[in-house]
Amino acid sequence: MSLGELLAPLIARFVRRVVVLVHRRRAAVRDRTRHCNRVSDAEPGESALDWVVPPRTTALLAALLVAALFGATATVQAQLRRGGGGRGGFGFTARTASPKDFDGLFHFCRIIFRNSAQGDGNGWSVDWPRADINLSIRLSELTKLDVSKDATGEPNHLLIHLTDDALFNCPFVMMTEPGGAAFDDQEAAKLRLYLEKGGFLWADDFWGEYAWGWWVGQLRKALPAAEFPIFDVPLDHPLLHTQFEVKKIPQIPSIDFFFGTHQTSERGADSTTPHARAIADKKGRVIVLMTHNTDFGDAFEREGDDATYFLNFGPAGYAFGINAVLYALTH
Length: 331
Description:
The chain has nine helices and nine strands. The chain has helices at 3-33, 48-52, 55-82, 130-142, 185-196, 208-219, 255-261, 296-301, 307-330; strands at residues 109-112, 114-115, 158-161, 173-176, 181-182, 201-204, 230-232, 275-280, 286-292.
């Protein structure tokens, strides 16, 4: 049996589940609107159907499904060559970037950092490398961004230390679970220089007030509070409207937490509200984006693991993530 024949029933089952879930959600809203004229949370001019499944979100969902169908064979083949994928880099070899890795195209660059026992995080490799790969693939399919790829067509994603000179070849870098990060003076100085020279850092997936406080303490070694105040990203900020219309900050739990608890707040009452916070430079350009009490990385990493998880968190996660990258590259 060929790989295509093996994948065909799995893809068909995935699509059927997504279609059923969409129809169920729309049917539930139609039933609800028979008994009331509005959804209390809808904005003026929105229908109830727009609120539950907004048209642009539905369009993104459709685009993601088409992209996933056409890319499934190549993705699975690549994962088989590597010995499989998985959270924390199972089957992948960690190698830091060198100057020869840069070809003038876009690379997803991830920061490698030390994890402190006094912090609250599971280290730099959470969601690596599938989040890096999948977001790169969707950027190449849903935007005009030229993404660097290897001979097999798979995105070239890179690992960077803050002290590496290669850092300055990355206009966009990401950290996951920064609530456990530990910066020394040299790393803090390099991070500040990188951001002042036009770089952009996205720190994602840390939950609760302790993790927030720890991260801010490390970040302040590079960006003192008096010079670089932290603010909540307003919903009318250009970052949220670069390509897709993001109307709220989604709370995205890890897939294991979601199916284990059917909840989204991983730390209960300590993480009920998701935040998108930022630091800007003197010209108002966002240089640090911090998504707290939410996990965009899992929306990318786990896009193909389960249709229910994908439908609930994939479109919103990718809309925000694509916007963030495009903002970083154009501001």
